[in-house]
């Protein structure tokens, strides 16, 4: 576990000090440490995600316990990781402390006494420290103060539930490929494998306990995909029909593209500006036995890739703060700044304007984000509607306000369906 602790603090340092993406850094770390056992790989992921998820609380506790921060920032992160283990994992406290002391000496040969003393002090004064942390908003919620304030302004009485949901472990939800099997049949297959699941939404199954995709029956044959039930709203709301020409803008990694193709026999153009990510779309479609026209291009500049043929439907799954999926990506909380939201909103408006010209009259565009901030959601739509008399926002019977808030069944998403009428 000592090597795992050291690798975890290296990953956390890359995220918090260099602003790098947790998923990418962790993937690189696991590739470099290819000799890690499955248990070590799982432990590394848990330490990284857990420590970042509760970074506000852990940083507060360390600050209370250390009179002067260590010169080596890695020692601070080591203390946070070890306190996370003591508080949130089932590992033995003696083992955790011993391993942290050993790991500290790899950073600074003289740091063992400091680390041992801080962790023992936490164990002795745990209750008082956690009570103090509960009285500090950043420590209590484990979000930056600006984020807490924004959620509170927008959601008032629901703010606590929204913030707490973002710190829970996310559910694992499957989308059954109706071209391969039925939901009932696949549920029976899961039960045969001893995997507990229950139906959710029209096509989805939510697992009682997440499992690796290698345990899912016929996963490689394309019978099922992993996709949050909130994300599965997109294909239903866009209402594609046989023969339609459809654009999925910002399509990677391809979950929504695949769902659209499973929903109807359409000609789908899956576009993304990242060629590497576009390869993931192709891989996902190949596994499912589906085909689409893949285009590498920028949604803000269609003139560089569009062939001039209008679309009957467009899914504008725009870049956003990802504030609705922070439980899957806890680094987002600490990397985002309040000024970033306005930047996203401007980019979203640019994409909406650019793609609108590609939509045929009587066509529909579904604007989608995985954000909970109205500045990126309905406010973007309202500004767009003021400029376009030929655009109307259609009501969503399943989502009257368009906003899905994260809970125990799905992540946070926003949807707005626009209809292009004759001008």
CATH architecture descriptor of the largest domain: 3-Layer(aba) Sandwich
Bin the strand percentage: 5-15%
Please indicate the count of domains.
Answer: 3
Q: Indicate the percent of residues in helices.
A: 40-55%
E-strand count = 12
- Report the major sheet: 8 strands, mixed
Distance between the termini: 66 Å
Question: What is the count of DSSP helices, taking H or I runs of 4+ residues?
Answer: 18
Average per-residue pLDDT, rounded, comes to 96
Stated plainly, the CATH topology of the largest domain is called: Rossmann fold
The helix/strand class is: alpha/beta
Q: For the record, what CATH class of the largest domain applies?
A: Alpha Beta
**Rg of Cα set:** 23 Å
Name the CATH superfamily classification of the largest domain: Vaccinia Virus protein VP39
Spatial shape: globular
SSE arrangement, N to C: HHHHHHHHHHHEHEEEHEHEHEEHHEHEEE
Low-pLDDT parts are none
Structural commentary:
The chain has 423 residues and is an alpha/beta fold. It has 3 domains: 2-136, Orthogonal Bundle (N-utilizing Substance Protein B Homolog, Chain A), CATH 1.10.940.10; 173-226, Alpha-Beta Plaits (2-Layer Sandwich), CATH 3.30.70.1170; 233-420, Rossmann fold, CATH 3.40.50. 48% of the residues lie in helices and 15% in strands. The protein is built from 18 helices and 12 strands. The chain has helices at residues 2-18, 22-32, 38-53, 55-65, 73-88, 93-107, 112-124, 126-134, 137-141, 145-155, 159-165, 183-192, 233-238, 255-263, 275-288, 331-335, 338-356, 378-387, and strands at residues 173-176, 197-200, 204-207, 224-226, 245-249, 267-272, 293-296, 311-317, 359-369, 391-394, 403-404, 413-420. Strands 5, 6, 7, 8, 9, 10, 11 and 12 form an 8-stranded mixed beta sheet that branches. A hairpin with an 8-residue loop joins strand 11 and strand 12. Helix 1 (2-18) packs across helix 6 (93-107) and helix 5 runs parallel beside helix 7. The radius of gyration is 23 Å and the shape is globular.
């Amino acid at each position: 576990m000592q090597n795992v602790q050291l690798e975890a603090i290296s990953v956390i340092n890359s995220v918090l000090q260099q602003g790098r993406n947790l998923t990418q850094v962790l993937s690189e770390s696991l590739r470099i440490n290819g000799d890690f056992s499955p248990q070590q790989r799982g432990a590394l992921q848990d330490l990284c995600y857990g420590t970042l998820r509760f970074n506000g609380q852990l940083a507060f506790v360390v600050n209370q316990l250390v009179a002067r921060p260590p010169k080596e920032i890695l020692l601070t992160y080591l203390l946070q990781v070890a306190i996370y283990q003591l508080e949130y994992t089932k590992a033995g406290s003696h083992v955790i402390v011993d391993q942290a002391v050993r790991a500290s000496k790899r950073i600074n040969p003289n740091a063992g006494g400091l680390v041992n003393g801080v962790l023992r002090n936490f164990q002795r004064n745990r209750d008082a420290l956690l009570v103090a942390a509960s009285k500090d908003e950043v420590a209590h919620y484990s979000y930056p103060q600006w984020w807490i304030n924004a959620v509170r302004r927008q959601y008032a009485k629901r703010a606590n539930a929204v913030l707490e949901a973002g710190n829970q472990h996310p559910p694992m939800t499957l989308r059954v490929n109706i071209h391969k099997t039925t939901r009932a049949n696949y549920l029976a297959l899961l039960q045969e494998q001893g995997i507990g699941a229950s139906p959710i939404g029209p096509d989805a199954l939510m697992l009682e306990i997440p499992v690796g995709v290698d345990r899912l029956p016929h996963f490689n044959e394309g019978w099922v995909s992993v996709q949050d039930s909130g994300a599965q709203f997109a294909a239903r709301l866009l209402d594609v029909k046989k023969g339609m020409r459809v654009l999925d803008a910002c399509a990677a990694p391809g979950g929504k593209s695949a769902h659209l193709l499973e929903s109807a026999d359409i000609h789908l153009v899956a576009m993304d500006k990242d060629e590497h990510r576009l390869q993931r779309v192709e891989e996902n479609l190949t596994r499912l036995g589906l085909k689409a026209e893949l285009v590498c291009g920028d949604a803000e500049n269609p003139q560089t890739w569009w062939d001039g043929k209008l679309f009957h439907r467009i899914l504008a799954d725009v870049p956003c703060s990802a504030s609705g999926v922070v439980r899957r990506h806890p680094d987002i909380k600490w990397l985002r700044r309040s000024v970033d939201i306005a930047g996203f909103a401007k980019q979203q408006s640019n994409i909406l304007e650019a793609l609108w010209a590609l939509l045929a009259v009587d066509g529909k565009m579904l604007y989608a984000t995985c954000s909970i901030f109205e500045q990126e959601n309905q406010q973007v739509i309202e500004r767009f509607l003021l400029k376009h008399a030929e655009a109307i926002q259609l009501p969503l019977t399943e989502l009257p306000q368009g906003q899905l808030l994260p809970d125990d069944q799905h992540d946070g998403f926003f949807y707005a369906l626009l209809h292009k009428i004759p001008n």
